[in-house]
Amino acid sequence: MQYFLGEAIVVEDLAKTYRVKKRIRFLKSHIEVVEALRGISFKVRYGEVVGLLGPNGAGKTTTIKILATLLLPDRGEALIDGYSVVKEPNKVRERIGIMLTVEKGFYGKLSGRENLEYFAALYGLEPRRARERINYLVKLLELDKLGADYKLFEEYSLGMKARLSLARALLRDAPVLLLDEPTLGLDPPSARKIRDLVKDLARKEGKAILYTTHNMFEAEMVCDRILLINKGTIVAEGTPEELKSRVPMLKVVNLVVRGNKKVRGLIADYNVKYEVKTEASDLHTIRVYVEKPEEILGDLLKKFVRNGYDIVSIRVEEPTLEDVFIYFSREA
Amino acid sequence: MSFYSILRAEYKLVYSEMIRRRSALIAMILYPYLFAGFTLFFGYTMGSAEIFSRRIGVDPVIFMITASYTVMSVLASVDDVLWRPLSDTFIGTLPYIIASPVSRLKLYLAIPIPRLTALIVMGFTSIIPVYTAYYGLEGLLSGLVVMGLITLGCLTMITLAMVIAGLVHTIGESWRVLNIVRPLVMILLGAYYPRIYMPLIGYVLSSLIPSSHIVEVIHNMLRGELSNFYILIALAIALAVLYAPGGNKSILYWEKKKVREGVKTD
């Protein structure tokens, strides 16, 4: 397996199958084979946030677990900072910061700071270095304002738990961060704080970040590159813009007109897919699905004006990342 | 990664839990009295104190309070090691511990020490007052020696507990197995049931438990005998050292099995 300088994560042909025992009758059960990963390959460079985007059960957490040395793959190889997750797990563990489920993973009767101190000791940070690092992270994630020094973890809100979880992932200042759905269930301000921090960590500190999510908007906001994963296969890869441009998708002309005549007859001539919604008897919202809007738009507008309609608004919509995801999933 | 840092972290974890969960602290203080009281009650209703003293060679009150204190301390240190993987699984901290580069031997050696310290200090509220009331100043000194011996007994149990923990958790449904292991250790320790009265198989199995040799030293001391004092202590330490590599391997084996199956993260 080839490893080049500047590549933080290299994954090649990674596959994992789970055997799940399913009970079918009182004393009878059978083994169900679930292919969680079907030979995925990708790379993440330093200073880059790569999003692993897919629905539930797509294989995102399985990938993160393998990279975090918490699960062995059946086939393939993964290198973190040049070290194999299978053959050199201890070396890998020294080079990663992980954030898994935000709700759990801390001791309830300890405050946020005490929890961080505990994990700092497990990660082998010298007491003075640990203190400095914790002070820095508590400030960075604004945990001090939320009472991380005295409030017990069991009293934390989900947003605070997520911030604390990210603080733990950053404790060792590891070059590679593996973040599994870090904003799941968070309120918008907390989610935004996490997203902003993640972007900064990659851009300013040069960390390599693998970020799993099923939130399209979030992936578009945070990630430099996106890997679309579905049923254990990477179905597409690229920047959000690249992915959108690769979809030969119809664009949507969203036209709002005012007038008393029937609008359907005017559009029917064009042989395109459309939807009409009428409000307050004379306000019509028309959505026309067309590959090249410029070819019909001028003529369509003229037709409406000629028939006595007032044009209220006109908008051409680009396909969203969600459309892209659905398209590639269907293709796969 | 120093043992001291890990130990400090464990102290903070255990004492924060202990202080912030007061019911557990009170139960810990009352436990030796409750256990000794319960055993003495049944002992007095079914047998005679004189016969007990004649057979065992120690006053039943002294014997039972010492036995309760010993069992409580040894089982607490064994429990800390045995149950820790389960509690970490339940709390959700296990993936972070497995994914940390911490030395498992250092971590598991450090885990029981904080609670053990607290339990040893509890000796000042359990055996010391009773010993002093029975034997005066000499009793106070004997109590301190017994506390020291029990500390050693607990420490020598850690590596065996690691061996058992790794094996039991590898099997699966470990909490069921642990509920069998616990009373077995309690009996084979010989604190309530001196091992010289055990059947041969019991005696052999008991001899494999490091702290059972310390218990024998304590029983001998209470009878006023000091025969084999150093030999028994050396035997306990030797067994503990012997179990250390096995304990480390056992924990690593269990972790590897967990990683093969996939460590639960939700």
Spell out the key features of this protein:
heterodimer; A: 332 residues; alpha/beta; Rossmann fold; Alpha-Beta Plaits; 2 domains; 6-stranded mixed β-sheet; 4-stranded antiparallel β-sheet; 11 helices; 14 strands; B: 266 residues; mainly alpha; 13 helices; globular
Task: Give your account of this protein's structure.
- The complex is a heterodimer of chains A (332) and B (266).
- By secondary structure, chain A is an alpha/beta fold.
- Chain A has two domains: 7-245, 3-Layer(aba) Sandwich (Rossmann fold); 251-319, Alpha-Beta Plaits, CATH 3.30.70.600.
- Chain A has eleven helices and 14 strands.
- Chain A has helices at residues 60-67, 89-93, 112-122, 127-140, 158-170, 188-205, 216-222, 240-245, 264-268, 293-306, 321-331, and strands at residues 7-23, 29-45, 49-53, 75-80, 83-84, 96-99, 176-180, 208-213, 225-230, 233-238, 251-258, 273-279, 283-290, 310-317.
- In chain A, helix 3 (112-122) crosses helix 4.
- The mean pLDDT of chain A is 87.
- Chain B is mainly alpha-helical.
- Chain B is built from 13 helices and no strands.
- Chain B has helices spanning 3-20, 22-46, 49-56, 60-91, 94-98, 104-110, 113-122, 127-135, 137-171, 174-188, 200-207, 210-222, 229-261.
- Chains A and B meet through helix 1, helix 2 and helix 3 of A and helix 1 and helix 5 of B.
